[in-house]
Amino acid sequence: FKNGGREWQPKGEPESVQVHDFLDPQLGKAIPYGVYDLSENEGWVSVGIDHDTARFAAEAIHRWWEKMGSKRYRGAKELLITADGGGSNSSRCRLWKLALHDLAIQLGIPIQVCHFPPGTSKWNKIEHRMFCHITQNWRGRPLVSHEVIINLIASTTTRTGLKIHAELDNGHYPTGIKVSDEELAAVNLKRADFHGDWNYAILPRQTKT
Description:
There is one protein chain. This protein is an alpha/beta fold. 29% of the residues lie in helices and 18% in strands. It has helices at 54-72, 94-107, 125-137, 146-154, 181-185, and strands at residues 31-37, 42-48, 79-83, 111-115, 163-169, 189-191, 199-202. Strand 6 and strand 7 (199-202) form a beta hairpin. The longest helix has 19 residues, at 54-72. The chain is globular, with a radius of gyration of 19 Å.
């Protein structure tokens, strides 16, 4: 896995790494998707091995809720997600909305979604409160296995007390899945009056079609 930076090693004991950053059939991919809890300064990172899709993103949120969120917020009436406007959780992605609807049904609570406008992803606090510290922590370290990647992510801390849990997701998330108009219409989605394409609620029940 490609990683920039430098790390000191004992003289005469360099760590062997690949010369080029081509996909290794034995190591595979490592795709991180993170959830950051603003109020608790805690993070969750799922490291996927397949594709960065909306289903993968929704599963990462589900795992965070099952392992951390539900214990921290017992009796929660809804879940608020702030997300970038592009990528696997794109505001235009039909599969993202369908995957969140499935998640809302599983959790039994509405999910409120607020996307950052185009070109403002750096406003997302997960970038400068969590991922930048992960990048700093593993800078120059040879990312030779999924175990190493997960351990480096989980060992990331800050002076303000940041804690991160990391876990490997061995699931398969195929690309190219098309969501039909009928499937999208069944998603119980309520758009906000202000920029409803970026701000909406997904309720845990299907609409009548």
